[in-house]
Amino acid sequence: xxxxxxxxxxxxxxxxxxxxxxxxxxxxxxxxxxxxxxxxxxxxxxxxxxxxxxxxxxxxxxxxxxxxxxxxxxxxxxxxxxxxxxxxxxxxxxxxxxxxxxxxxxxxxxxxxxxxxxxxxxxxxxxxxxxxxxxxxxxxxxxxxxxxxxxxxxxxxxxxxxxxxxxxxxxxxxxxxxxxxxxxxxxxxxxxxxxxxxxxxxxxxxxxxxxxxxxxxxxxxxxxxxxxxxxxxxxxxxxxxxxxxxxxxxxxxxxxxxxxxxxxxxxxxxxxxxxxxxxxxxxxxxxxxxxxxxxxxxxxxxxxxxxxxxxxxxxxxxxxxxxxxxxxxxxxxxxxxxxxxxxxxxxxxxxxxxxxxxxxxxxxxxxxxxxxxxxxxxxxxxxxxxxxxxxxxxxx
Amino acid sequence: xxxxxxxxxxxxxxxxxxxxxxxxxxxxxxxxxxxxxxxxxxxxxxxxxxxxxxxxxxxxxxxxxxxxxxxxxxxxxxxxxxxxxxxxxxxxxxxxxxxxxxxxxxxxxxxxxxxxxxxxxxxxxxxxxxxxxxxxxxxxxxxxxxxxxxxxxxxxxxxxxxxxxxxxxxxxxxxxxxxxxxxxxxxxxxxxxxxxxxxxxxxxxxxxxxxxxxxxxxxxxxxxxxxxxxxxxxxxxxxxxxxxxxxxxxxxxxxxxxxxxxxxxxxxxxxxxxxxxxxxxxxxxxxxxxxxxxxxxxxxxxxxxxxxxxxxxxxxxxxxxxxxxxxxxxxxxxxxxxxxxx
Lengths: 396, 342
Prior knowledge:
By secondary structure, chain A is an alpha+beta fold. Chain A has helices at residues 20-52, 83-116, 121-136, 139-150, 186-213, 219-237, 262-288, 292-300, 305-335, 347-359, 362-391, and strands spanning 161-163, 167-170, 173-176, 178-181, 242-245, 248-250, 253-255, 258-260.
């Protein structure tokens, strides 16, 4: 490192450019100035070119009427909504498929990663085959496979596969009853909140009790019972205040109920299964990074295998796993933009695709889209780093 | 570089080279002449309009417009580089100078003409939006489409017209939007949607790609006007005129009875002054645009007149077999009409 250090003998009255501190400052300032002018010129030039070619600029278009329909939106959206609304709809759809994908990929990835190290020969081989197949096929091919080869093989709406006449599976996706909360449903939500808080407090108590007495309580079972049971009882006692809109076949399609698009299912499956293969390898490497002495020590205490894995191996493996997991999550979020290949209405398809094409505001829209992915990625990265800091080896 | 200032001198030569590419290209004609070819944006594959045949040669009415421009400007219809573009890519490709002409079944609308920095040069095909359904649904009118799933190509005027039409008629629909017309047709074929919507000429083309073309029909209603034509960048009037008059020359040639068969004979012995002016025997109409005087002769000789082009690509001599309909000349019951060369 060529840094001016206080231990260097200071020159007395030398010329300024001989002074390393001043010289460094000047070089930095000149470089910064050149960069600023360069960027300024780029912006200026672009604006001039846009004006010279008669292309409108600015973000005013966001208030214009979109005029096109979007098959899935988590907020109220009609063709009368604004282009700004198409941005929100696309963003929420991207976040939805990313969140679903991250949860599923993590679950599958952990299961497969652990299975790969299992002493059960068949299980370990199956896990290896899974990883090698799904890691080595391009994601786009997998998305198209799930969409065209698997989901398109389902029957037409009239010949839907049905489950208790409540759930219907067909080429248009999954249709299921839609719950509409009535007055009094909030009691159930409050009960759920209270149950979760109570469980968390109970878990803390159990941990302290175990530290003090060595006796473990079945926290998971009791917690699960409370979180599911209490709201259920409140729900029944308050008279089941939910109105279910049942799907029924009328005309072309099912009316009523919630329709889960096959595009969402295909994208979700492909993203989860593909990313899970990488996560499995990360989990495996994390587990292998834990010194075998730890497992042996646990065995010599005659701890059962599941507790060894859960309380000794995985907590130590997490230190290796978490940072790599962050990049997999980021990859998954960015890969969700492949949605456009099968017509899932994500941010890229709806906003950077259709809206861009209808308005022609390429620069603004691409800039907004890039900013969104940057913000999402930085947020995920930040949260994962927080978690990483907590799982780091604490030296005392 | 109209906005030079002192700060420019600070920029390195490398940076200037990079920026030069983003400067407005005022003289497309000069570029085309010095390159000896020009770039034409077409669709990624739509029978009758622009699609590569089994030998990889592009065919279709939009493709022939590109060839006619090459014949007019360079005297050689093969000097065209075709750039296949999806609906979503097309305008950016033209704005950024990646292509010189967009000839890709693109509807002329106010927004596109006024705020995208583009100029529509004319109409090479008058179309209207229609709906394609399977016959076994027993539907006879678009008014019966309430609740249908509809496959459509993303980022088209079709999407907008459909939303407006269903709203105006107080009907519901579920839209399934795909990137290319191929994917859209595939979506319809596999049962993902009940209905396929597009310009009716495209429906006629897409129908040929379906597993069983006879099991489907196009509903009679047309819910929009879709004037399709070539587009150029705004701000280059000379190039704009050349593309516009290439189209007009093909129409005038048909009106005057000049075909690729008789064009030599017509030029040597013009039957009337109109033909003499069109084929460069009288006046300097080509030179006025900065190209050679036999521009129209080259177009008709090398590509043909409008009627020949229509019949060969989408009309009676093609697999699509469309009627001339409103695309007939103004004196034959249609609305195709070109200003005279004089």
